[in-house]
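S.,

Sequence below, as promised.
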Amino acid sequence: MTPALYLQRDQPDGVPPLSLTGERTLPDVPEENYWFRRHLVVYEWIAEQVRGMRVIDMACGEGYGADVLARTAASVVGVDANPEAHEHSRLRYVRANLRFARDLVDSFREPADAVVFLQTIEHLQQPAAVLEHFRSLIEDAPSGGRGGVPAGQEGAAAGRGGPAGQGGVAAGQGGAAAGQGGAAAGRGIVFVSTPNVLTLAPKGSARSDNPWHVHEYRAAEFAQLCRSCFATVELYGLFHARKLRAHELALRLGWDRVHPRLGLTGRFYGRFTPAIACRDFALRAEGEADMDRALDLIAVCRA
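The prediction came back faster than expected:
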């Protein structure tokens, strides 16, 4: 199917729906729910780390992530260059401590206690330069970091597999959500995430067929990039849990050969995919799990 055929459903009055293009994920598209929840769970985890902070959500896309961060942060600015995404987010997500700016991630400048940059670094030609820019933003933040005065956002169904793609869920591991004690320690944090090419790319391929990706990373390469720009980097991996872990095991037992023969594909995934929740994913710290088997890689970086 052509991803552009997927439009957001049931948007508030006056809010134009966005279409699924493959560049970013969206809420309110049942067929995209696997990818949306996979992104959302990381935003929710980060929201617990940035309580009371001034936060910039770079490449915020549709804006749902910036809205999640604004539940706990002192203030949030969602930055995105796309005019349709900017207009949608500005109209849909309205909070006293949340605003949206249309700008490029490498030129927007405002001191912050935390910068969030999820599932976008793989789109960049010069990722190190952008990470250095983010470091300068948190270094510009006044001492104390928290309690700033409130200021008054990938991947679509195309080329990504996942349950909506009839069983192509990347291999991973379950496990309890990573603890939230260490990430918020100290002044100035940059959160960066990227898909793990080892679980994103089809078996036997060097990379995925996502046309928006310039470079896809393995865990060691991603960690090295982040550590070249920041003094301290903690690495986490996102893994399947609960029913997604059970689905993985079913695939290993041949489920992909069974459901087409029985004519169950549409009915099964038509119910399974919209029912996926954030608790069907788990974050695990480096040292607690094999990062090469992670779905996504999350770096918590400090200057």
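Confidence is low (pLDDT under 50) at residues 144-162, 164-185.

Coffee later?
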